[in-house]
Amino acid sequence: MKQRLAIALAVALLAGCAPATRVVLLPQPGRSTAVEVSAQEGKTVLASPYAQAEVSQRGQVATDTTDAQTVEKRYGNVLKATPAAALHFTLYFTTGTSELTPESSAELQGILTQATARPGGEIFITGHTDTMGAGPANDALSLKRAQAVRQLVIDRGFEADRVVAAGRGERQLLVPTADEVNEPKNRRVEIEVR
Fold this sequence. Notes:
alpha+beta
């Protein structure tokens, strides 16, 4: 009986040492990320992959590092339920039109194949222009480009209520230029598949 009580007490003590919150910064391929963890008795910034912070029941913050195997063992089920990262694509247009270049037109089917493979996926299409022409005309042209690609996506079988189109005109140039510069890389739509 004493042995059972000692084991139960050890388990209870260990449970009391468990952190109230644990935060682990996972690697983001191609991106630098950081997160600040704040609590009643302190705060810290996690800025490297697998850095972790544990917040105690009393609000104290302790930092440490972990590794991929430990994260998989501890959080494998959560990671499996996490949605896949968004996919990003860029298609280009001929000057002053909403017609895709032949190369971009050929890429569209591959994009749709990847989009339809995602259950519940959505497509966000954002149109852009170069700096040729006036601002209001470029706003209209960028929206027309996004809507044209949206229609191509819908015509090829993607559900209309899962496709959103917007125009940004010349506000977000891929290649910064002065006004009235004919830059092919700025005549584009950016497609995000979530």
